[in-house]
């Protein structure tokens, strides 16, 4: 085991502890104060609800960047990733998008269920079948509409970082790995991301982006996949 492996384990343990024993909470008046560590997970939810974009940026930025580092470690044996800060910022921006898009699709689908525009129903106290219908429907439309463009946009950002210059659309599309983007990525959306985000949308709203950040460990590996290696 290398030093980097030990550091990676420490990072994951610290991140998990930071969530489970989150020290700050937000009162009904919006004041941030120290809460009980025994209520850390509840504190985490309240803090996320009050600062959704800030938390979305750091949760996805940290875990997805770690996912990229893990992929490089698996390929090369080294944890070193060039332009790491730039990649973290890009993932943080993706986290901002996750925060907005998750809420947008959840509110949109939730508002349509039970109307003539949608099947099923949504009651004040929905049973598990209602919740599953909502979760699957939201995951389906979010992934069909948003997932592929987001992944493609992230890949373009990677190319800009790698080349240290703006990359034109024609040049970018010419260099795309066609088997990966024409077959592999769409299959992951259908067979992995739609089921995975169905589970995500079964969770309370304040923890959905956290779940997406955990899934970003996998997403980071997929987006850094290169079939030639």
Overall spatial form = globular
Give the amount of beta strand, in percent.
Answer: under 5%
Helix fraction, binned, reads over 70%
CA distance, first residue to last residue? 23 Å
Backbone CA Rg: 19 Å
For the report, how would you describe the main beta sheet?
2 strands, antiparallel
Helical run tally: 8
β-strand number: 2
Mean pLDDT: 87
SSE string: HEEHHHHHHH
For the largest sheet, list the strands in their spatial order: 1-2
Q: Any low-confidence stretches, pLDDT <50, length ≥5?
A: none
Structural class: mainly alpha
Domain count: the total is 2
Give the tags.
single chain, mainly alpha, 2 domains, globular
Secondary-structure blueprint:
Elements (H helix, E strand, L loop, with lengths): L2 H18 L3 E3 L5 E3 L5 H11 L1 H25 L7 H29 L15 H36 L5 H7 L2 H23 L7 H16 L6
Helix pairs in contact: 2-3, 3-4, 3-8, 4-5, 4-8, 5-7, 7-8
């Amino acid at each position: 085991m290398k030093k980097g492996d030990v550091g990676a384990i420490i990072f994951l343990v610290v991140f998990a502890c930071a969530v489970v024993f989150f020290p700050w909470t937000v009162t009904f008046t919006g004041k941030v104060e120290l809460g009980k560590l025994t209520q850390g997970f509840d504190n985490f939810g309240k803090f996320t609800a009050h600062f959704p974009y800030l938390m979305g940026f750091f949760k996805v930025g940290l875990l997805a960047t770690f996912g990229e580092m893990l992929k490089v470690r698996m390929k090369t044996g080294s944890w070193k990733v060039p332009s790491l800060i730039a990649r973290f910022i890009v993932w943080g921006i993706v986290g901002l998008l996750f925060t907005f898009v998750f809420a947008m699709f959840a509110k949109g689908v939730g508002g349509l269920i039970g109307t003539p525009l949608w099947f099923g129903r949504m009651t004040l106290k929905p049973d598990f079948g209602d919740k599953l219908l909502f979760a699957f429907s939201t995951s389906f439309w979010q992934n069909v509409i948003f997932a592929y463009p987001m992944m493609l946009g992230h890949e373009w950002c990677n190319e800009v970082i790698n080349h240290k210059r703006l990359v034109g659309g024609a040049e970018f599309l010419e260099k795309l790995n066609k088997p990966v983007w024409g077959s592999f990525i769409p299959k992951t959306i259908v067979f992995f991301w739609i089921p995975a985000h169905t589970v995500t949308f079964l969770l309370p709203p304040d923890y959905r982006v956290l779940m997406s950040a955990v899934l970003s460990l996998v997403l980071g590996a997929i987006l850094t996949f290169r079939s030639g290696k």
